[in-house]
Amino acid sequence: MTTDRNTLRSKLREKFPRNHGQLLPALHFLQHEFGYLPDWAMEVVGWHLGIPSSEVYGAATSYTELRVEKPGSTTVRVCTALSCAVTGSLDILNALEKELDLDVGNTSDNNEFTLEETPCGFLCAMAPAIEVNGSWHGRLDPQSALQLVRESGQ
Amino acid sequence: MTDSTLQSRFKELANDARGRIQQAVRGRPRIVVQVGHCGAAVGASDLPDAIRQQYGGRASITVAGCDGACFTAPTVLVQCRSGDFIRLERVASNDLRRVGMALRSESPGAPSSAARYIESQRRIALDGCGGLDAESIDDYLARDGYSALVKALQSDPQDVINQVKDSRLRGRGGAYFPTGLKWESARGFSADRRYLIVNCEEGEPGLFKDRHLMEGLPHRLIEGACIAAYACDAQDVIFYVNAEANLSALRVENAIRQAQDLGLVGDDVLGTGLNINVEVRRGAGGYVCGEETTLINTIEGYRREPRIRPPYPVESGLWSRPTVINNAETLASVPYIITHGADNFAQIGDGADTGAKIINLSGSVRRPGLIEAPMGTTLRHVIYDIGGGPPDGVSLKIIGVGGPSSGVFPVSMLDTPIKPGFLHESGVMLGAGAVIAMDDSIDVLSVIRSLARYNANESCGKCTPCREGTPRMVEMLDAIASGQSSKSDTDQLTDLARLVNIASLCGLGQAAGNPILSGLYFFGEEMRDALEQN
To answer: pTM of the prediction?
Structure first.
């Protein structure tokens, strides 16, 4: 993993031509590399593309898929869009909140779990669905969802 | 280059593809494993390898997208001795004996409910989805894929535009703008470069059709996009794929490479001298990303916000060049029109509105999935006859149509036909085709609140009516739900919903009041009754 500014800068130089249109691809690259967008890395992207850090940050925070805060090592997202909500996703969310002792939208103190809700996983025909560390699971109930999360934590 | 050399060059490509398939199959039966976003969520990703390990010697195994009968996923199609395919449903990787038994069967037996589900549809964009190899171009080429592109290249671009105009195809992303007209206007503005963007953002809750198209028929999308690019004289085609749709992006990228290798896209397409560069760009989440000018902003590296129109993208879009933005489903219908003719397409539907539309059915129904039905089909037919209606012992109460920009219907409106634009004046639109069936255990207020909350969260904050109005509407709905509201508050809520619709800048805000307006129109009594009890 890239940890210093110079290495990141040379990686960016290799991958992204210096134009404004490369901002989103570069931010995706950071998210892939670090799991979120560290402040210092956004600054380096700004240097490379010639975009002020404030603008980089402004754009980054306008996208729901990009994270500017470090998530827990296991990220659980529960779809609460209408199709999932009417087939029981709120029960799943409640069960997970209880199991992880965590309010939705937060990361546990030991940085182990992040629990979030998402407006849609686009698995409406497989509702209710949750995502654990990037992979989606459908046709769940509170029990099977808890089991998935427990297995992922091991 | 003459038409006949173009033809013969293409024939050669198709023959080569058939040869490669024959070589791979070697007379063995075929097994098609459907792996899509939906199937992967219930274990389909493990199936191809597991099946290859056990049956790889006896059968030729290919991976396809999901055919839209999502309720049976993971689905595997196995060719039995008669040559017909047996449909295995809800297959688990630890129980593959069914695959072996199907290989040994003499005949396919009675069709399953899922087979009938697909047969009762009118598939145009989705035709072949779930059967065609999604990882190789050969299957598509062997079944006359890309022949529509070749046909288009032999005619004048204006003829192609005229055909699409005559077919009366309208944009399937929800706005239903006439597609041919859009192409013509972009062509009409003089420019050194033009762009064609395939809008595969699909960020609206309740939708999963574009993912199915990208995962199952990436080459049909590329073919449709290239025809469009030729017609409106665009040199660059950009597939704008939702940030989370990883499998879709993978399949489309792979398909682009294959098409490039065969000279179907890229420089000098099939020796015609035409250049069409195709690339994939990823979004970064959010409903508003699918809005045309927002989408352009995100590609250019700016905040996720809409721009003021005019100028419209067809005049000044990406990098200030004329830009055509078409939904994936729209472009997937284009090869059909070119192959079968505008009249053929125009005859599908109910006369006024042509073609078929993919309905994304979910919620409390027996057979949730994708249903492509002619325009004019009633919601009742879609939900009950094809979708199987609600499970036993449950009756439907609310039908969410068209997602958070639209509204809700009571069951008494089930005979409404699907068509572009408003289905009802209170704000119910077909939109991109999401239909969510909800049973009588669901409280209408919670449904409207869920849609309103979504709009409030997705509001980008650029214009005041939407930024301030959408959260305020949620607060007012909360007050009603918690009993801290009086009857006159519903009038205020109606006023606010109308105001947000009228005064907002982009499509999100202009439709954000619809869930509330339609909810109050159809279920107002239920909501006011709740208030009276307080």
So the answer is: 0.97
